[in-house]
Amino acid sequence: MDVFKEQNVIRQASKNDSTRKVLIVFVAVMAAMALFLLSLMIPQLLMFGIALAGVSLYLGYYFVTAQYIEYEYILTNGELDVDKIIAQRSRKRLCTVQISKATAIGEVNDSSDAETDGADTYVVASANDPEEQDYFLRVKHKSLGDTVIIFTPNDEMLDLIKKSLPRTMRS
């Protein structure tokens, strides 16, 4: 039987993200004002200064919206793809792993540090939400080496992942 499950998880903004957004808006507005005032002082640069002020405001908008991140988990016949989607305008494949090559899986908590330490690669694709439980999946990957994926699957996705695990890990 073919298995296909797709799940989107929206990353919750942290305090650092909010501070970064305010700083970006402040810098963009100040740069636009400075360019506009400079263009008023030098009449020959009026159109050029106004255009640069508009570009400054657009770049501020672009960088603020780039802080909106979501992750997509796609499970297809024992293969888990983890994608990062930025502001619904660009997508980046973080990793693709075979769940049958997993060496450990569990909830992320204080006692899981021993199982996640010492990996070659860490892929953090969690919701950053304290109300939802994060899980880790440790996998041997051919190009990334010993990889730990930290993600926030829902119950249905977690059950399907557990069915694809090696027999020794299913319990």
Defining traits:
single chain, 171 residues, alpha+beta, four-stranded antiparallel β-sheet, four-stranded mixed β-sheet, 4 helices, 8 strands, 36% helix
Model description:
The protein is of the alpha+beta class. The chain has helices spanning 15-41, 46-65, 113-116, 155-164; strands at 4-10, 69-76, 79-86, 90-98, 102-107, 121-125, 135-141, 145-151. The strands form 2 sheets. A 4-stranded antiparallel sheet has the order 1-2-3-4, covered by helices on one side. The protein has a 4-stranded mixed sheet with strand order 5-7-8-6, with no helix packed on it. The protein is elongated, with a radius of gyration of 22 Å. The mean pLDDT is 90.
Q: Which structural class do the helices and strands define? A: alpha+beta
Radius of gyration: 22 Å
The secondary-structure element order is EHHEEEEHEEEH
Largest sheet: 4 strands, antiparallel
| Low-pLDDT stretches | none
Distance between the first and last residues' Cα? 22 Å
Strand content: 25-35%
How many strand units? 8
Overall average residue pLDDT: 90
Number of helices: 4
Major beta sheet, strand line-up: 1-2-3-4
The helicity comes to 25-40%
Shape: elongated
